[in-house]
Amino acid sequence: LSEWETELVVSATCKQLLEMRVRKIVPPFVLTIDEAHRFIPRERSKKSATARILRDLIRRGRHHAISVIVITQYPDSIDKETLRIPCTKFIFAIEPGHLGEMKTLIMDLPEELINSLPSLPAGTCILTGTKDMIQRSIPMKVTSIRRTTHGGVTPDFIKELREFYGSDVS
After folding, report:
1. With 70 as the cut, is the pLDDT of residue 1 above it?
2. What pLDDT, in 10s, does the model give residues 124-168?
3. Residue 116 belongs to what domain range?
4. Are 76 and 33 found together in one domain?
5. What are phi and psi of 81, to 5 degrees?
6. Same domain? 97 vs 151
7. pTM (2 decimals)?
8. What pLDDT does 79 receive?
9. What angle do CA 145, 150, 156 make, to 5 degrees?
10. Count of the separate structural domains present in the chain
C-alpha cells in the first residue's frame, strides 16, 4: 500500500473501532501502533486526518476500555500531545539525540540515569507515567520469565472472545 492508502486504512479502522466500542458492539481491546511517528507526526505540515483520529482514540479510548500501545524509535518525531497522554510509559534505550524529548517525561529521575538511557541494556526500561498511576519513574527489568507463583491472572483472550461472540470463535 502507498503511504496515503495506509493512512486511509488506519484512520478508517481506528475511527470505526472507537465508534463500535463506544456503542459496545466490540469487546474491550488493545490497539498497537508501531512506527507511530509515521501516523502521528510532530511536524504540523505532515499532520493528517489519521493523526487527529489517533489522538482522539488515545485520548477517549481509555474511558471505553480501549488500551493503546504507541511504539516509536523516534520520540522527537511524534506529536507532543501523544507522548503526554498515556498514563503509563515504558522508555527503552534511545539514541542520544532523542534525550531532550524524554527529559520532559522523566524529570523526576537523576540526571545521570537520564543520560544513561542510550546505553540501557536489553530488557531494561524506565517505567514512568502520570502521578496518579506511577508516583516516581523507576528503572526496571522486563523479562518473559515468570519469577513468582503469585500475581494477577492472565486473561484468556480466546475465552473472552467466545463469551462475547458465542462459541463460533475458533
Report:
1. yes
2. 888 888 778 788 888 888 876 666 666 666 777 788 888 888 877
3. 87-170
4. yes
5. -60, -40
6. yes
7. 0.70
8. 86
9. 75
10. 2
